[in-house]
């Protein structure tokens, strides 16, 4: 699909029906834990729009055949769009802080939140993002006609589903097959027989470390289909970058740190990962943060042009599009209500001064414009970079207040990320001819159920963050990054391990250099330029995770080379199934352990 013009609305089609909203809410509730699980594992989440569209199509088609076509009406395209919008909004709730500032706050201060309080916080942050997205919709989607790649891909997939029903059914089967395989493997390993990690124990004579082997460093094959699935989604360039990062961090730097006695060798119950991560997180975070900020800076000219064009057009009552829009008065009233709710939540829950909370909310809309512009052009919301902007801002204002540093950034980064995610769904709706008002209702419902389900999933998976996070099982790389920035302001660089400042400078230099190269080199070269964010990520996750992600990316690349048509149709459903299956099984396993005391 090359055109991004809106489809004319099909007035006879159902849209915001009870079953469309209910289907989206149920699927969103099921898919949220997948993103929480993967976010705590590798710091990434998965856009669930296409997954929700395929699952709902398969479910209602099977139901219609089973109960009879006269009893169950056809599951129509725009109903599916409302379902997909709701489910996607729910699944994107992790951008509201679940896998980054919230656990980082617990690690630094010990403060935890109950399920109702955490749900309220997530909803308050996300609500600002919803209203910001709706306010920016006309300017970003209609006036500037930004591509929003994920939204375009979703619209194209939904159209394909209804144009080729047999093809859609096959995609659903592949998705469910991947989910069953992944879930069965995870449950078998958790409850029947622990599947071992496989790899040789090669000594490190060159570093004179008789007690450390390649197995201890994490160079293993891990039986995780989730990582394979994510690897297939991220692509070969990112996969290779992760492998290079793992070799540099765990194959070269870690043994050198042990040999130089900059990091103590593990004894007793200590692990290589647990000891080395205290040092490696600094160059890793520096690489990720500087790369994200430099890449973000390249998007600023476009943001300025957008501002010159007039953000006020977002509230325009006149439009050449067919869909009925939402009045500017309602948007302004809604945004003010959401802003008040977020300010009060910061004050009551975290004790943040009212004026500081108000400043965070004021920054939110500015950064939401930036996030929307970047996401609209690249498909990637710069949540990490925007969070760092706020952390740096409030870090200079109140350098020792880690709660303020983390949770104000949670508001701005989380709401801006939610805004950019929701604009992808609004783009799909625009292309399919959906009602903006119907999509808005679906988004509100989605963030509501997502807040409830997401906080429940987090509390079930991580009942004790202080002992469970930043381990081989739960590396939580996003938590590492947010925690490190807050610690840096509170304690200063002297609190970091010896030698880590030099490592940070090198990491920052690599991050800046690769980010600039990615932007200025011709495409034929830049597509092979390593990703600094992925290199940095490999410094803070176990090596076996990077290896599995690389294998998934490699398998997908080979399949695309040998069978491009088959790969275009089925790799994404298979990968989505692998991610969803292990994630849901992991949540089920954690819930079982919680209930049985195991």
From TrEMBL:
One of its GO terms (cellular component) is membrane. The keyword Coiled coil does not apply. GO terms for molecular function: oligopeptide transmembrane transporter activity. Pfam families: OPT. It is a multi-pass membrane protein. Keywords: Membrane, Transmembrane, Transmembrane helix, Transport. It is found in: Membrane. InterPro entries: OPT, YSL-like. The chain crosses the membrane at residues 20-38, 44-62, 117-136, 213-233, 240-259, 279-309, 330-349, 355-374, 440-461, 498-521, 533-559, 571-595. This is OPT oligopeptide transporter protein. It comes from Kolteria novifilia.
